Amino acid sequence: MQYDVIVVGAGNAALCAALMAHENGAKVLILESAPKSARGGNSFFSGGWMRFTHDGAEDLGSTFPELALTGKEDFDVLRYPDNEFFDDMASITEYRGDPELTSLVVKESRKAMEWLHAKGIRLVFTFSKQGLKHNKRYQVGGGSIAVSGGGAGLVEKLFENVEKTGIEISYQTRAIELLGIPGSCVTGVKVRNSKGEILDINAHSVVLASGGFGASAEKRTRYLGPGWDLAKLRGSEYNLGDGIDMALAFGAKSSGHWSGSHAVAWDASAPTSGDRNRGNEFSRNAYTMGIMVNKNAERFLDEGVDYSAITYGKIGTEIMRQPDSMAYQIFDSKVLDILDPNYNGRQVSKITAQSVEELAKKLDLDPIILAHTIANFNVSVDESKTFDPNCKDGKSTIGLIPKKSNWANRIDEAPYVAFPVTTGLTFTFGGVHVDEKAQIIDTQNRPIQGLFAAGELVGGIFYYSSPSGAGLTAGTVLGRTAGHQAALSVRNNYSQSK
Ligand SMILES: Cc1cc2nc3c(=O)[nH]c(=O)nc-3n(C[C@H](O)[C@H](O)[C@H](O)COP(=O)(O)OP(=O)(O)OC[C@H]3O[C@@H](n4cnc5c(N)ncnc54)[C@H](O)[C@@H]3O)c2cc1C
């Protein structure tokens, strides 16, 4: 079997790479380890938020007509220029992200979105995280636009496009090894197919887009640390880190934040991996409106340091550090109606009580310590400031450790409600090093001929956390780059051999 380009994986990055390689004249094969019914990787489970640069309301409305502001008189659309996107990436990654790759993602983000739009992908404004309605007006910034239908909608549309082009997809076919001369050039992929047969498939170029290692309990423990084997997965069970392993065994240089990941507060009774029907329902991102305590009934972080849209990706890691990787989000009746809709789902783990003592008993926490924690919190609240969930209100605690910097509202009105949460792993950050052509670099800093990568398995873009919507955008940008370059390298090969 001989192809121009093999793409490993069938999530957002892979499908973008495959379509782009096809558009540039390549004969493409997609390998997907999951069965068709579980296709789409983490991209399927995602909320579909995508971050891209734009010039404000008029610009958005003229390029993406579904985002025109007709009927949305209470919307303010702020410009989102390159420098702001770059700064958001830099500050959230604590200035560790690879500047060249970050720049590529930022600069190409708009073009990538227009390309998706031309493929029938439609956008919506979305405000499920707190803090976006100021003075009764919605503020659209960098993180408030998502694909219609979420991640499932995105991948279904991409599959529709792939199927229209006639690109072959081989399901239940797991890539297990790269063929060629390690560290020099790739000539194909060894696979195990659905019948258990081991086959060599030849190609001029290979794009690895098979996700991170989040689904491997063993690798989570090895790289993220003790306890991470027990973390719940928010997404796909198939992202076992195969692409990273294959590339490293082939001489690729590793890159990025190997002990880091995006991880959120997640319903403690959620299944161990993503539920395709319930998607993101288990997210518990309204901790900014209350307090979080661990099993010792003690607070352990500043719940209000920033909007949850900024902090949510780090919260799971903080919870992982607590006894039994568990925490309880506690609210009183004053804020119950402003928690996001995920808190009112059908199967939400939720404990209600008429007193703090009763709550402690129901949660099996020490009632004296919980009462002490809440009383200490209440007396330290700055009552000179007014609580306002729609902006960083500066209503903080005074003299309390840990401080709560905003939205410090006394917890003193029954009923008291607690939501047990644990760590929900979104995706991992360690991976392979690529250049601006998405070409994998070897340990001697030379590109490996014909070998490209895109998506979660690329290291060096995210450290500590990622701004909402940046994971999919990075996957689309690098997927498009990888697909284009893979097709070009085929053409160059042909012209050299003539
Ligand atoms: C619940 C959830 C919500 C999220 N929400 C957002 C959001 O709103 N916005 C955002 O930007 N990001 C979000 N993310 C992160 C985002 O989903 C990922 O960053 C992105 O989807 C990664 O895309 P990918 O193509 O690299 O990987 P994936 O989409 O995970 O695709 C990898 C594919 O490779 C396949 N594969 C693995 N190993 C092999 C192998 N050996 N051979 C063949 N195939 C293989 C897998 O089966 C899978 O289909 C979310 C993630 C989750 C889990």
Automatic annotation (TrEMBL):
Coiled coil: none annotated. It holds the Pfam family FAD_binding_2. Residues 4-462 form the FAD-dependent oxidoreductase 2 FAD-binding domain. InterPro entries: FAD-dep_OxRdtase_2_FAD-bd (IPR003953), FAD-oxidoreductase_2 (IPR050315), FAD/NAD-bd_sf (IPR036188), Succ_DH/fumarate_Rdtase_cat_sf (IPR027477). Its cofactor is FAD. Keywords: FAD, Flavoprotein, Oxidoreductase. The keyword Calcium does not apply. GO terms for molecular function: oxidoreductase activity. Gene3D superfamilies: FAD/NAD(P)-binding domain, Succinate dehydrogenase/fumarate reductase flavoprotein, catalytic domain. This is Unannotated protein.
